[in-house]
Amino acid sequence: MSLFDDPRLTTMGLLFEAHDGLVARLEPTWKAAGLSGLDLNALMRLSRSPQRRLRMTDLAIQVSLSTSGATRLVDRLARNGLVERVLDPADRRAAHAVLTDAGARTLTEVLPEYLAAVERWFTGLLTPEQLDGLVQALRIVRDAANPDAVAGVDP
Fold it and tell me: What is the pLDDT of residue 2?
């Protein structure tokens, strides 16, 4: 077997190809709402966080942005009324990104079509056992390769 035939290359190639294909299939759902994939990711993370808020630094880590990148993201979402920045009363140097009611309504409008596309192109293609195994495997890989993906989330 040559180095080029290593099954690890096939595994990574399949992961990249699946990711790229899924993004292409899901992208129309967030674009129809005037959002980018990053916007949707940030809004979903805020919606699933306690009190619909995250420290700016935790949001930056969760969406794989620098602090300045997260600031630009939150500024854009705030201009559209989807998020607001709130100073932390306990630490005036820190700020939180908070999902607004308008942001929650936007998610409520986008998610049904998004979830239908997720079902059609991803989760619905797998048996319940396959999906459960995939979720478990993804958590293992995520926790090893990107443990900060859940920054600011209580275990």
Answer: 85
Q: Strands 53-55 and 91-99, how do they pair?
A: antiparallel
Query: Tokens 């949001």 appear where?
Result: 59
**Could you say which architecture CATH assigns to the domain 16-146?**
Orthogonal Bundle (1.10)
State how far the Cα of 38 lies from the Cα of 32, in Å rounded to an integer.
14
73 burial (CB, 10 Å; 0-12 / 13-18 / 19+) is buried
Burial 133-152 (b: 16+ CB within 10 A, else e): eeeeeeeeeeeeeeeeeeeb
Distance (Å) of CA 78 to CA 12, 91, 107, 109, 133: 37, 21, 15, 18, 38
- Token pair of 152 as six digits: 């600011």
Would you say residue 142 has pLDDT above 90? Answer: yes
Q: Per-residue pLDDT tens for 77-98?
A: 999 999 999 998 888 788 999 9
